[in-house]
């Protein structure tokens, strides 16, 4: 299931508005087929993985899929639960329940009614690979990643606003790869007016993966750019499951204060600026105790001379 969850990253974010799902077919401990949701949401992962496999092979195989197979018909293709029933694998293992009310247990029930053995796991890796879809379904908003690139002393720019470049080329390439995994990218109106950032993906072969651009501002919308007036308005960004927030300082603080950041990406360069622009504005904390227990380390790696650290927001629900 962990391998399937890793494979699901290939579907992100091209599968929008569908979730990025992956499926593996395993026989005698060997992966014999695989699939992931294709661009635009079709074909689904299960259809990709099952295509071309003969009934005798499937009768002795297990299908691993990161999300419960869909149970509803669509003008763009059949329900995956029906495809699986027709293919008749020996067993189906599902990483996460589908909260979409059109499926929500009905997919697994259809397989069981057809006599196919099933297992539903609460698999953390599958949940992580589907975090944008699950957050949309459960909270009505996209999964939000906040990126900050700072000096060792927490500055994002010199006192005069000069910020190119704090981090190394390797770190900037890593940022562009992360941009390519998001549906939309957001900056504040001040950053937009001062820097006119491109907010695109400039990695060879991935230029077409540039995300939708969004500006947090109450001013008129620039050409080909969406605007929202407040962080809570991200719920209205149609089709956006993964939102990448790049700042500046007040925008970052506003998302943190509203508790809308699910993942925090920190790029730290080995430089000291001193009297520079700070990475964050006020978070409205009443005391230091409120700052503890909110973030859990998820990843750490070296990128050239810089350090990349990722944290996940710890939530009880």
Describe this structure in words.
This protein is α/β, with parallel strands linked by helices and 317 residues long. The protein has an eight-stranded mixed beta sheet with strand order 10-9-8-11-6-12-15-14. Strand 1 and strand 2 form a beta hairpin. Helix 4 runs parallel beside helix 5. The longest helix is centred in the middle third of the chain and has 11 residues. The two termini are 23 Å apart. The relative contact order is 0.12. In the C-terminal section; belongs to the HTP reductase family. Pathway: Cofactor biosynthesis; riboflavin biosynthesis; 5-amino-6-(D-ribitylamino)uracil from GTP: step 2/4; Cofactor biosynthesis; riboflavin biosynthesis; 5-amino-6-(D-ribitylamino)uracil from GTP: step 3/4. GO terms for molecular function: 5-amino-6-(5-phosphoribosylamino)uracil reductase activity; diaminohydroxyphosphoribosylaminopyrimidine deaminase activity. Its EC number is 1.1.1.193, 3.5.4.26.
